[in-house]
């Protein structure tokens, strides 16, 4: 049986909610555009986690050890980035997408034919990091006038990605010169 619920008036009238900044009604369209960019960033991080797990385990050879260890460390950082993007999506009134919306893009980070082919892995990592750096710079630029909080968060993440890129550029130099 359905119960009828008594409605009681709140004792103190609530103030009408006024929000400023990126959470305001006036910023709705910017907020929605930003949510799209944050979703892309979220999926990039998730796919990077997948690719780095595979590439931190597949490679063979003495020279693979350094690369594998480095990727293992990165996995945790990329996972944290994904969680940060997800949290920001929620804070901006968005919903973190479900796995059915995932579309893979990292063709360049698939396992090589030969698991001793580390140059393939290193170049793949450089491409993934460069892609993230491009996208995050766009987010930072977009946020400059509208959302300093997201801007701040993404600047810190960008620094991590620049560190990853720099490290793997160093690996590539060594591998190129060793032939
Ligand atoms: Fe990341
Ligand atoms: Fe990274």
Key descriptive features of the protein:
binds fe (ii) ion; single chain; mainly alpha; 179 residues; Ferritin; elongated
Model description:
This protein has one domain: Ferritin, core subunit, four-helix bundle (Ferritin, Up-down Bundle). 63% of the residues lie in helices and 0% in strands. It contains 4 helices and no strands. It is elongated and about 75 Å long. The structure holds fe (ii) ion (2 copies).
Tally of alpha and pi helices = 4
Strand fraction: under 5%
- Biggest sheet: strands, sense, closure? none
Which fold name is given in CATH as the topology?
Ferritin
Low-confidence runs (pLDDT<50, min 5 residues)? none
Structural class: mainly alpha
Bound molecules: fe (ii) ion
CATH architecture: Up-down Bundle
- Topology, number of strands: 0
Q: Summarize model confidence as the mean pLDDT.
A: 93
Using only CA atoms, what is the Rg? 22 Å
């Amino acid at each position: 049986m359905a119960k009828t619920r008594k409605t009681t008036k709140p004792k103190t009238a609530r103030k009408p909610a006024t929000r400023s900044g990126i959470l305001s009604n006036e910023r709705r369209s910017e907020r929605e555009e930003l949510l799209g960019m944050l979703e892309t960033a979220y999926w990039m991080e998730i796919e990077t986690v997948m690719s780095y797990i595979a590439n931190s385990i597949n490679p063979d050879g003495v020279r693979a050890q350094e690369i594998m260890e480095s990727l293992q460390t990165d996995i945790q950082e990329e996972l944290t980035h994904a969680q940060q993007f997800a949290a920001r999506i929620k804070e901006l009134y968005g919903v973190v997408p479900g796995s059915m919306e995932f579309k893979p893009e990292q063709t360049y980070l698939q396992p090589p034919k030969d698991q001793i082919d580390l140059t393939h892995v290193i170049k793949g990592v450089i491409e993934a990091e460069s892609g993230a750096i491009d996208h995050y710079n766009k987010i930072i630029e977009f946020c400059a006038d509208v959302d300093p909080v997201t801007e701040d968060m993404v600047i810190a993440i960008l620094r991590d990605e620049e560190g990853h890129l720099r490290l793997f550029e160093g690996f590539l130099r060594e591998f190129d010169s060793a032939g």
